[in-house]
Specification:
disordered C terminus, three-stranded antiparallel sheet, seven-stranded mixed sheet
């Protein structure tokens, strides 16, 4: 919504300026403006119109990406809320490295840090990088997950005296992802396999489940389970 409001404000403001300039040019009676000045004003209107069009198109793409991202997070959120009482889920946990979309703690004391992406296409990996249709993904999600894991471990050590193993997962809602894709220790998968991942056996710390209410109080996100 913020992006929509910003786009509307920029578009409206730019349009008003262009209209004012066009009216001034049409009147042709402004004092102190010679032929060169009128030509410059006409050029400014043309360039301003092109610039405003590019800004509007770029803004519309950003809004569509934000809407797709929000919908993808909602899809993952619904899956997590189905898990029942054996799961604590915190959504939209703020960190210095971009918000953590979903933090999950299971009854067995496993912790999942989920980063949701709505990119279409085919996801592969080239060494330590994720690729979408053969090209590196902007704002490297693997690096973001690893930074958030390090930050979260430090927070838990400071606040509850434990530094657990945290499993990072990048979840794509629309892209095709090969099975068993792991990059730098971070699991990468399509959303359809998320339930299976959450049910797999893994490293857990039961003390984390016992401390779930303390953890819930530390981070005031939406919580379920």
């Amino acid at each position: 919504m913020r992006r929509k409001r910003t786009l509307m404000a920029v578009t409206l403001g730019g349009s008003l300026l262009l209209i004012a300039a066009a009216l001034l040019l049409g009147e042709g009676r402004a004092p102190g403006i010679g032929r060169a000045g009128w030509l410059a004003l006409a050029l400014m209107i043309r360039l301003g119109s092109d610039l405003l069009d590019r800004i509007a198109r770029r803004g519309e793409r950003a809004v569509r990406r934000a809407e797709r991202g929000a919908y993808a997070e909602e899809q993952v959120g619904r899956i997590l809320e189905e898990r029942g009482d054996g799961f604590l889920v915190i959504h939209d946990l703020e960190s210095p490295y971009g918000n953590i979309d979903h933090l999950v703690i299971t009854r067995e004391g496993r912790i999942f840090l989920l980063e949701t992406k709505s990119h279409p296409g085919r996801i592969t990996a080239d060494g330590e990088r994720l690729l979408r249709n053969g090209r590196p993904i902007e704002k490297d999600p693997i690096q973001q997950v690893l930074r958030n894991i390090r930050w979260l471990k430090g927070q838990l050590r400071e606040r509850i005296g434990r530094e657990p193993w945290i499993e990072g997962v990048v979840v794509f809602s629309r892209a095709f992802v090969p099975a068993d894709l792991v990059v730098r220790g971070v699991r990468v998968q399509n959303i359809r396999y998320l339930r299976q991942t959450l049910q797999m056996a893994g490293r857990g710390d039961p003390a984390l489940w016992e401390a779930r209410e303390r953890i819930r109080q530390v981070w005031k996100g939406k919580s379920e389970g």
